Amino acid sequence: MMFERRATMATLLADRPKNLFLVPGLGSCTWDAFAAGDDDRNFYLWGAMGGAAMIGLGLALAKPNARVAVVTGDGEMLMGMGSLATIGVQKPKNLSIVVFDNGLYGETGMQESHTSGGVDLLEVARGCGIERVMDIADEAGLKELAGLLATHEGTLFARVRIAPDDPPRVLPEKDGIVIKDRVRRAVEIATRP
Ligand SMILES: Cc1ncc(C[n+]2csc(CCOP(=O)(O)OP(=O)(O)O)c2C)c(N)n1
Ligand SMILES: [Mg+2]
Predict the structure, then answer these.
(1) Which of 55, 74, 82, 137 has CB atoms 3.0–4.6 Å from 115's, for a disulfide?
(2) What is residue 193's predicted lDDT score, i.e. its pLDDT?
(3) 42-58: pLDDT as tens digits
(4) Domain tally for the chain?
(5) Which domain holds residue 156?
(6) Ligand 1: distance of its center to the CA of 74 in Å?
(7) What is the CATH number of the domain that holds 16?
(8) Cα–Cα distance between 31 and 168 in angstroms, integer?
(9) What's the rounded Cα separation, in Å, for the pair 144 and 87?
(10) What's the distance, CA 176 to chain centroid?
């Protein structure tokens, strides 16, 4: 099954617990996150392609009382594929990586990515030692994933096949310092003992 990206992001965030932080990959996933509702706990990326999973790992390790979900594109994940190896070795208890896999570099004009050419990110994640690896097949699976973002103890990697559409762009705050300060304050509030 192919999922519609905006509805998928909304489902993942529907029952978001107070301590769930989101790192959306640059471009489409950042716009999806903003479209689902602006939130101080979103660390919107406007660049740093390939860095989303590592930023998520850093936050997860620094703040063990926070839960961290990275939601990013296949192109972004391919660029930072080595991060999965580091996550598999570090094994934080509180980190999930979700890839919105449309097989395309959507933002830049729908060029095919290597997931269209046979690269299977689930096998990569398994090979890297990510503890729970999920291929989301239907709405029930997506709801299960949403719950796991809040509760799963350990590392999780999920692939969601996304339909190749390009919904109207809705753009969040662009000032990196504002975004950083905002999320930092939210982390301090959410992880107070
Ligand atoms: C280092 C670097 N290279 C290239 C780009 C241009 N760029 C921005 S988004 C993007 C494609 C992202 O594709 P994907 O992560 O699959 O997201 P989608 O839009 O398909 O959901 C590219 C190539 C960039 N921002 N940074
Ligand atoms: Mg893509």
Answers:
(1) 74
(2) 81
(3) 999 999 999 999 999 99
(4) 1
(5) 5-190
(6) 9
(7) 3.40.50.970
(8) 9
(9) 22
(10) 18
